[in-house]
Amino acid sequence: MLLSIFAQAAAGGSEAMIYQIIMWVGIIGVFYFFMIRPQQKKQKEQKALLSNLKKGDEVVTIGGMHGKVFIVEETTVTLDLDKGVKLTFDKSAVSRSVK
Fold first, then answer.
1. H or E stretch covering 39
2. b/e for 37-64, b at 16 or more Cβ within 10 A?
3. Scanning 13, 29, 47, 58, which has its CA 20 to 30 A from the CA of 40?
4. Contacts of 6 (CB under 8 A, 6+ apart)
5. In whole angstroms, what is the distance from residue 30 CA to residue 41 CA?
């Protein structure tokens, strides 16, 4: 890729090379701000949600099950669904908290 930039710069002059570098920096900036940064922010929020789970929180799993947190352990969480029905899920299966 660098070789092609330098080859084109020799033919078009240094002005064309500057515009190409600016274009590539712009493309990388767009990728960062529209794709990478929001994904990192979402991962950070999900990690905070899982670490702050406590008994009584209402949550939704990735499968769509709604329930109240009954027990929080190291890697699992037990949800109280309805009328005493309790299911154990992996913590990573909790998608979001319902306020």
1. helix 37-51
2. eeeeeeeeeeeebbeeeeeebebebeee
3. 58
4. 17
5. 16
Using pLDDT thresholds of 50, 70 and 90, give the confidence band for residue 3.
low
Q: E-strand spans in the chain? A: 58-61, 66-72, 76-80, 86-90, 94-98
CA–CA dist 13, 11 (Å, integer) = 6
How does pLDDT run across 41-98, given as a tens digit for each residue? 999 999 999 999 999 999 999 999 999 999 999 999 999 998 889 999 999 999 999 9
Question: In one letter, which amino acid is 57?
Answer: D
pTM here? 0.67
Work out the burial of residue 9: count CB atoms within 10 Å of its CB; fewer than 13 is exposed, 13-18 middle, 19 or more buried: middle
